[in-house]
Amino acid sequence: MANGAAPAAEDWLHQAHVDLVGLWEDAAFRLYEAYDVIAGPRWRLELDAQPYGEVWLIRDGSCSVALGEQHVVAEAGQVAVLRPGPRRVSANAGAGPLSLAGFGCGVMLFDAIDLLGLLKLPLVLPHPSDRLRHLITETVAASQADRTSRAFRAPALAELALAEIVDLAQADLPDRAGDAAPLPGVELRPEVRAVLAHVAQHFGERLELDDLARAAHLSPKHLARCFRETLGVAPMAYVRRYRLTRARERLVTGDLPVSRIAADTGFADLAHFSRAFRTQFGVSPRVLRAHARALRSTTRSARTSFPDGPDVVSTHT
């Protein structure tokens, strides 16, 4: 994508449509990773696009964050909120070590569409509540504890932290006056839900429009019309989005080879998978994995023999 810009956050899905169809009720919070970073004065992290949301609590020092055209410096005690979107550059803005705790997350609709970008959230909360600081810190602690805490406690705490951020920011859905007229407000039909369930169960297999139509007991033409009326996207475009989102989760949270992840999520050709992934998220699969590993590496360094952490991490394509 030109200039490394990420696609607009679900720009085909706008506020009026989400409200009218009642899609917020079907959204689910996802915690992708949590990290505890101590970095040296020269620490710098660059990413061609911000593929998912991140929340950072600056504990000591100061952190410079540039997200697209926005640029702020988050000081100790403040919270940075990075929405999915354009190129991001973050760096230690002070002369001493930088310490931060944070997590990566999404608000996923049917495991395929991230609604986090629809929320109006500031890049920095200058006066976060003690409760928010505590929730972020406890999220990181739970993610480093036993398996049960990682599976249940950490995601629950992170979701509460995001809810607190929304409350503190007095966030609301963006006003999109002047955008295209919203799609008709209709309920999500049982036939469409049947297709969503079918995709969730068989996304790693070969899927054609006829397969989805059979799952819904509709003709392909009728199914396509139902999908566009309720989700604003064609059925096979939804399948691709779902596959790419599941691939993103596996890239961030696991260590399987990229080729294996591509095959497991329904892409027979690695080159095709990489192109589709970059088109959707603004970064290549390998760059996204490098970003996640860079944060994990910084976290590990903070606990072992490198008290200053790594200096420079660049994840350009």
TrEMBL record:
- Give the organism the record lists: Actinopolymorpha cephalotaxi
InterPro entries linked: AraC_XylS_family_regulators, Homeodomain-like_sf, HTH_AraC, HTH_AraC-typ_CS, Tscrpt_reg_AraC-type_HTH
Q: Which PROSITE patterns match?
A: HTH_ARAC_FAMILY_1, HTH_ARAC_FAMILY_2
What keyword terms does UniProt attach to this protein?
A: DNA-binding, Transcription, Transcription regulation
Which SUPFAM superfamilies does this UniProt record tie to the protein? Homeodomain-like
* HTH araC/xylS-type domain mapped to chain residues: 193-291
* UniProt-recorded name of the protein: AraC-like DNA-binding protein
Q: Which domain of life is it from?
A: Bacteria
Xref: Gene3D superfamilies: Homeodomain-like (1.10.10.60)
Q: Which GO terms describe its molecular function?
A: DNA-binding transcription factor activity; sequence-specific DNA binding
